[in-house]
Each structure stands twice: as C-alpha cells, then as structure tokens.
Design a protein that fits this description.
By secondary structure, the protein is an alpha/beta fold. The chain is about 65% helix and about 10% strand. The protein contains 17 helices and 10 strands. Strands 6-7-8-3-9-10 form a 6-stranded mixed β-sheet, with helices on both faces. α2 packs parallel to α5 (about 115-160), α2 packs antiparallel against α10 and α7 runs antiparallel to α9. The protein starts with a helix and ends with a strand.
Length: about 550
C-alpha cells in the first residue's frame, strides 16, 4: 500500500514530463542490456574463439563490443543529463505546488505549524525527495532492476539449473528485508518530524534573542535544546539502524547464494556437464548481480528517506483551509451603511477563548476604538472581520450581508491593516508600499507615502523609493516602518482602515505624530482602532470596552 500511494503521489508531479521519463527509461534499459551482453560475451570469447583458436570470430566479438561501448557512453551521458534535468524540474514543481498551497491555507494552520518546520519541508524535504526518489533513488532502482532482469535471462540461457538456484536465493534476498524496510520508512518519517521540531526550536531561539539575553535565559535555552537533541538522537539511531539493516540483509543472503552456486557449478564443470566458458560467464554474472544488488540496496536508504519526506510534504498538501469561499459566494459590495457583529462567539481552541456572545455595531465613516487589556478579545474581532477565522456561532454582517456568503478576496480588498508588529518585505520601499495594491502606479505609491507623511524621509534615502528596507524592515526605525505600513494600507484606498495596536510599541512623541496623521487621513473612511489605552478614546466617535471576550460598555 505504501508503494501504491508513493507512485500515485509521484505521478502527479511527473505527468508533465512523461515523455522525458520514457526516454530516460530507454536509456536505462540500453545501459542494462549492454552490461548483460558484455558479461555474456565472456562465454563466447572462451568457448567459441579462444579454445578453438578462431581468431576471426574473436576480432568480430571484440569489434561489436567496442561499437556497443561507444553507444553505451553516448546514451549513458544522455541518460545522466535527463536524470539531472528531470530531478530539478520535478523538485521545483513540488516546491511550487507546496508554496502555492501554503498561500491558500488559513491562519489557523500557521498557528500550529512552526515556520522552521515549514521551511524545512519546502527546502530540505523536497531535496530528499529529489535525491532519494528521482536523481538517485528511482533512477538507480530502475537501472539495477533492469540489470537484474537481463542477468537472470542470460543465466537461464547459460544453465537453467544453476539459474534456478540463483533465482531462489535472490528471491529470498528480496523478501527478507521487506518488513524491515517498512519499519525503516515509518522511522524515517518520525525522524524528519523530529528534525522539523528541532528546526522550529532553533528558529524560535534566533527570533527571541533579545528576550533570551535580557532575562539571562541562555543556560535554560541550551538545556532545553540539549533535551531536544537527546530525543533526536533516540529517533535517529532507530531510523538509521533500520534503514541500513534493510540494506545489509540482501548482501548477506547474496553471499550465501553465490557460495552455493559456485560450489555446485565447480562440480558440474569438473564432471564436464558445463563448459569452462559457461562457468566463467555464470560467475561474472553473479558477481555483476552482487554489484547490482549492492547498488539497489545502497539506494534503499535514500529511497526510504525520499518516501518519508514525500509523506511529510503530503501532510501539508492534504491540509485544507478552515476558511474558504462558499460554492455560491458573491462579491461583497462596497461598505455603505454599517458593520454588525450579531451575537458572535468564537474560540481558538478549548483552552484559548476569543469572544463570547458579542454584539456591536460600527457605522460607515465612523472612528471606532476597541479598548481592553490583553486577552480581552480585541484582536479576535479583527481576525473575524478579515475572515482569518469564521465565528463558531452568530454572524458578521456588512450592510446586512453575512461575510460567509461573500468571497474572501472581495472582503479583504476593502480593508487596509496596520498592525503592531509591522511586516515589511526584503525589497525596496516602493515595492513594499505597492504590496497594498499591485496595480498601483508610481504616482499612487508616492501619493500614499505623502498621506502617511513619509514621502520626504523616503526622498532622503540613498536610492529614494528604490532603497531596500532590509530583512523585515531592519534598516528603518519603528516609526518609519509604521508609516510605510500605513502608506501600504492607504495605497489601496480601503473603505475600512484597521489599526491593531499600531502605535503601542512607539515612543510617545512618535505615537502622537502618527495618530495625528491617522486622524487627518481618515475622513470618509471607517476606522477601527485597537488599543489598551483609554486615553485614545477622546479621538473616537464611538468606543467599545471589552473584557474577557465580552462587551462591558460602549459610548
């Protein structure tokens, strides 16, 4: 069942390159056929040319072998090129499918899978699929299986009794490691899962270095990482031992088979039942089979790793978004009247609550402030308004239209968001602002920057609007990042502007400047401002005070 699933899954990615695979397959068949023919020629060189002193036949056989060798080299190079090219094409196909699928998944997925583990899947695990399944695994497996098939055919042609003994021994060699290989695949999957967890711990530690250092947590972090490595060691030893045991069992079985065949063959030659050339050729085939089985079993560890990695990738690809458009979803009209949360209840999980039986109304064009301490439910309301999640109970209505009946894109196209943790991309200032509306012209980008009062600063940068902002905007100050994020939200001319603790991390002077800017640019726009500071309420048309996911008061 594992192999059936594997080939069905792989077929989804190789379908576009089917003819290239067919050509590669024929290259591998020719490679195996020539190799077997070369071994079989030894019988005729000894029995038909050397023993009877037939010089002309000897030259003919050698000439044919030289011609075959030239073709063998040329077709082998073509096969090598095709295998390499197909490897990266299919790997990139898998990576693109994975990355594209990640764009469709809901926020809930990214809350339970660490970023480090996801990155490991996209890069490291796909590399294992390429090495273990395509470039080395599948290609080597096909080649060696063809070699074994041709060798068995020639062995039966040479002497069926010895060939039958060899076939029985080889069959036992193939069957013996099957159960171990299945256990190794499962253990390999568990190892990759554990490596993903370790990658997540490293990523979390790197992103939290300021907290680690200020609270003196270095020793604690090292101890916890050591515990993770001990768990990794246990899983690694089991997976690696089973993998190489599956590799070793066939080799032991083959050595015993070869010893039996050599003993019987030597007696038959001594009794003149078979010729010296037949015995020599038979032993060359057996030695070749030894190398073929060695190559096949050597590829098994990589092949097992590749299948385990493909299972990990399939775990992500089989995820479905928890929030998605209904089959009959409509385009949400531009907000005209009001946003209404009608008795809304939502919990992230049994352990983590959100809001409970919440009802509130925000009129179009008003400046609404949501106030409350951390965990009061403010950000949950925003997550629901943007349909990062859907309510467990109740409805969210835009002008009387339930958001679940509308397309997600038509909803989010009306919303501009500026959050506390500003996320800027590692590209130019211009492109970061344009992320709010990919069709925005340079003039519209600059107009948004002027509205956010960051235009003059941008012009002072070394390359102006084309200046890179660095990783996550690391080249800019907190206030500058906030203003660029504000410009990014404004460039799409949103009907609703959401500010989620957008100024809480700034110093008072910078916060006051940005709040003045926000007040100036929010005319004729619905603004939802989330804060835990009651002092900001003076700027609002309406205020909602939240506590423990419920509305305490409004006014």
């Amino acid at each position: 069942m594992e192999l059936i699933w594997f080939f069905k899954t792989l077929n989804k990615y190789i379908g576009s390159y089917r003819w290239q695979f067919v050509l590669l397959f024929f290259c591998l068949i020719f490679d195996a056929a020539f190799d077997s023919g070369f071994r079989a020629s030894l019988k005729y060189i000894i029995d038909a040319a050397i023993v009877p002193q037939n010089y002309g036949l000897l030259i003919l056989i050698l000439s044919l072998l030289v011609l075959g060798a030239i073709l063998y080299i040329g077709i082998g190079v073509l096969g090598l090129f095709l295998g390499t090219r197909l490897g990266i094409l299919i790997t990139n196909n898998i990576r693109y499918s994975l990355f594209e699928h990640l764009q469709t998944l809901s926020i809930e997925f990214f809350g339970r899978r660490s970023a480090g583990d996801i990155v490991k899947c996209v890069m490291s695990d796909t590399q294992k699929v390429e090495n273990g399944v395509i470039t080395m695994g599948l290609t080597v497996v096909i080649l060696e299986l063809c070699n074994i098939l041709f060798a068995l055919i020639f062995l039966f042609l040479l002497n069926w009794q010895l060939a039958l003994i060899s076939l029985i021994g080889l069959t036992l060699c193939a069957i013996a490691p099957a159960k171990v290989a299945s256990l190794a695949t499962t253990a390999g999957y568990q190892l990759l899962q554990k490596e993903g967890q370790v990658a997540g711990v490293v990523e979390e530690n790197i992103l939290s270095q300021a907290v680690v250092k200020i609270f003196g947590l270095e020793t604690r972090m090292s101890q916890e990482f050591s515990a993770q490595l001990n768990d990794l060691k246990r899983v690694y030893i089991r997976a690696t031992f089973l993998t190489y045991l599956a590799h070793k069992i066939p080799m032991v079985g083959f050595v015993l088979t070869q010893l039996v065949v050599l003993s019987i063959g030597a007696i038959m030659t001594y009794q003149r039942s078979i010729s010296v050339g037949t015995l020599a050729s038979f032993q060359v085939f057996l030695l070749g089979l030894n190398l073929n089985i060695l190559g096949l079993s050597s590829s098994l560890p990589m092949f097992i790793d590749g299948i385990a990695a493909l299972r990990r990738l399939n775990d992500i690809l089989s995820e479905t978004p928890t929030v998605q458009d209904a089959a009959d979803a409509i385009e949400l009209p531009h907000l005209q009247s009001e946003i209404y949360l009608d008795n809304v209840t939502f919990n992230y999980s049994p352990e983590r609550s959100g809001v409970n039986n919440l009802s509130l109304k925000i009129r179009q064009g008003s400046f609404a402030i949501l106030v409350g301490q951390s965990g009061a439910g403010k950000s949950t309301i925003i997550n629901l308004l943007m349909r990062f999640y859907d309510p467990d109970k109740g409805r969210i209505l835009f002008d009387g239209i339930d958001l679940r009946s509308c397309t997600i894109r038509s909803l989010r196209s009306q919303i501009g968001l500026v959050s506390q943790d500003v996320i800027l991309f590692n590209c130019s200032v211009r492109e970061n602002i344009r992320m709010g509306d990919l069709d925005a012209t340079d003039e519209q980008v600059e107009a948004a920057a002027k509205a956010a009062e960051i235009h003059q600063f941008i012009l002072s940068l070394p390359q102006g609007y084309d200046t890179p902002v660095g990783d996550r905007g690391g080249q800019l100050s907190g206030g500058q990042r906030q203003r660029i994020a504000l410009a990014r939200a404004l460039v799409r001319d949103p009907a609703i502007l959401i500010l989620d603790e957008a100024t809480s991390a700034l110093d008072p002077a910078t916060e006051a400047d940005i709040l003045n800017t926000i007040e100036r640019i929010t005319q004729n726009r619905t603004v939802i401002f989330i804060t835990h500071r009651m002092a900001h309420a003076m700027r609002a048309d309406v205020m909602y005070v939240l506590e423990n996911g419920s509305l305490v008061t409004s006014g």
